[in-house]
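Intended use. Records like the one below are meant for learning the mapping from a protein sequence to its folded structure. Do not use them to infer anything beyond what is encoded.
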Amino acid sequence: MAGCCSGNNKQDVRDKVREGYGKIATSGGGCCGSGASCCGSRQPDALAQKLGYSEGELAALPEGANMGLSCGNPAAVAALRPGETVLDLGSGGGFDVFICAQKVGPKGRTIGVDMTPEMLSKARRNAIVFTERTGLANVEFRLGEIEHLPVADNSVDVIISNCVINLSPDKSQVWREIARVLRPGGRAAVSDIALLRPLPEALRKSVEALVGCIAGAVLVDETRKMVQAAGLEDAIFEAKSEAIDQMIDWSDPIHRELAGKVPAGTKPSDFVTSLIITARKTELAG
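Structure written out for the chain above:
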């Protein structure tokens, strides 16, 4: 999907993802309905702790900010420092934005970008609660697509994203945007869903699986080429397939559906992995 879609097809994918995540935002949890179309874990805090989020970090979050849509912990991987400006791609209800805000402190700034109006409204409501609870007023949410970020060139220290870039129909453009808005020497820390081998055809065509972050994923090697083509350096790619097994353990219906459709003798984590990507933008000479 990195470059195979026409303009109309790309917009169709965005519309389906926007519709699916709009339903998640208004449902009050990680599921958009019942059955196979349910997206995210029904035990979001338990899954988050399995992925490395601490009880203290989760305790400061507004109710409903964690919708169980994570596949990693990019805020931890980013090794954030006080005073930094952080941008979260596909920020949803604000989960990782609020986590980062605690790490960068009152002199830092955290910006979330999401293309779903319902998610943006949810995040902005959550921000009021977050400020009341923590005293921090260092968060901001902007409406926009991650392929066309509403952010100035060379303006952020760190970019994070959690289980979102795989949903984009133009992933190469996302990585170019990451390179554009990072300051020289800035870094990216991304948790994403990637493929270790091609998916069975039945799952690849499933809209529910697309919203559940599976059908839109590409092979790890393809992701590596996109990051390098964007001009980012010191890129490291770490596959954590155990995170996929944890999603199934924590009652994620999409991943259970995957488990039922993979060939006999295989398991979902043989095909799909949580991929941790870190990279850096080159510092200007002098």
